[in-house]
Amino acid sequence: MLHSPFALFALFALFLACCAASVLSPTARAQAAPEPQLQTRDAATQQASAAAASFDQVVDRAVEREHFFMAQMKQLHPLVETYLQNLKEDKELGAPAPSSDVYFLGRLDMSEGTDDRTFTSPTTAGLGKRMLSKLSNVYSMKFLPLGFAQMVVLDQDFQRRFYDFTFVRREFLGEVRCVVMDVAPKKDSGKGRFLGRIWIEDQDYNIVRFNGTYYPHPRASYYLHFDSWRQNLRPGIWLPALIYSEESDLKYRLGQTLHYKAQTRLWGYNLKDLRRNSEFTEITVDAPQAVQDQSQKAQDATPIEAQRAWERQAEINVLDRLQQIGLIAPEGEIDKVLQTVVNNMMVTNNLDIQPEVKCRVLLTTPLESFTIGHTIVVSRGMIDVLPDEASLAMILTHELAHIALGHHLNTKLAFNDRMFFPDERTFERMDFARDRGEEEAADKRAIELLSNSPYKDKLSNAGLFLKAVQARAPQLKNLIRAHLGDSLLNGNATRMSSLMTASPQFDPKKADQLAALPLGGRVKVDPWNNQLELIKTKPVAITTAAEKMPFEVTPFFPFLTRLGTAIPEKAVPAAEKTAAAPTGQ
Ligand SMILES: [Zn+2]
Q1: How much is the pTM?
Q2: Which residue in 85, 160, 145, 139 sits closest to 110, CA to CA?
Q3: Which of 12, 125, 397, 419 could bridge to 446 as Cys pair (CB 3.0-4.6 Å)?
Q4: Separation of CA 41 and ligand 1 centre (Å)
């Protein structure tokens, strides 16, 4: 059904402000497969947590909890994604701007310890080269320990005797009250100890944030600075979720300076086995559902029905697999927002596509979209950076055009055995990229669809977004590229390029021109179950062009909450709350 023009206009506000409280529905919980066996609180904690009154007791509890944390992490294998932007001062903008970027995705494995915390001085090409040299292929799923992933660990052997602790203050991070203390390694306590500030929540005394570096560093190698956040993902358990790292003047070999900022995200702590073993028995269930009487039901699928069911089979297999390994989020609220836009396009264009077109979200940062059968997949990073609903419609319509034109999924994936490969090989086995001919046909058809749609007069921002993509692509090669599907850029060609002619000049120095947003502003991931939520904060008014930060990474400032305590304590005086917590992530 078509939504009224008002509803359409309001949709993007919904996109920004929608409350997705029902994401964690009881039914979703009930279906959960067995979870990793984690003890929530050891006996000593339960006894002591109520009573840790003195500063010394807090330190002792925190040290003990950190050892417990290390033991837990050995059993867990979340995905770890790091996206790094090297920076260079942009004189015109009066601020640093990205000059190149690095991306990697892997699965954390701490079962054999994490020894590699150093950034050793690179010989020629900077940090990117160094990281590349440790991975044969940046995007192949490697089982780490590696570089940025180490920043989940404060100290592998956190002991009171290695450190001096100084009380700083009590402070709220979100709704969680913390004891803040500075931590410095004692002399001769060994290399690579933590130096910086820690936040300890005052219920179970878990460290929930630590900000600093490792110290002292070995000769000829360096430790990076980082701000590492944990979230309360199981009762009593805080796990690494977000890490921001930045260096602005780290001098290394031959007077070179390291200047970068990077976000590391962890998710997929509790990947479910989807247990969809009976695919072939479902095959006729998915046949097109015209009104069927009893006699028809008892018959075999017609050849066309069988072909469609076969394609559907491949689609389900692939989606299941991608969800199972933590790359696609479970179905949820954001899918519905995307589907509303797709539905509006279909209604205004009298498109009737069976089976129904659905949308899903790829959990990764690089900007990409593609189709798997009748499912449109859009990456989290793409949703983050799109400036408005019409731009979102542009992305979705290109994919809808592929479906409307009948561009097929390779049905070799309908054979279930083809899904039995280890997850690090996913990107070799799955490739949804289209050839140039199909891309051009989809662009052409998408423009037609958009010109019949309620978005037809609002596409100048979409064109502007494409101009921004084009302008930043040389510096942001690893963000503006596709890993599973098609990039917004195909050689010199930009997707939907005819939209650019009617759009204004891309001007990074104009404060009120929002061509593309920073990463991380819209989609929030629950690192435990991969459920998504739209971030509810209102957009912050931008005062200078340097604050626009199109496609850029920023520090994290999550609003920490305790599991099962959605309502903040009312008794807390406002003055005690953190004054400077920025909005968004
Ligand atoms: Zn395409």
Answers
A1: 0.79
A2: 145
A3: 397
A4: 49
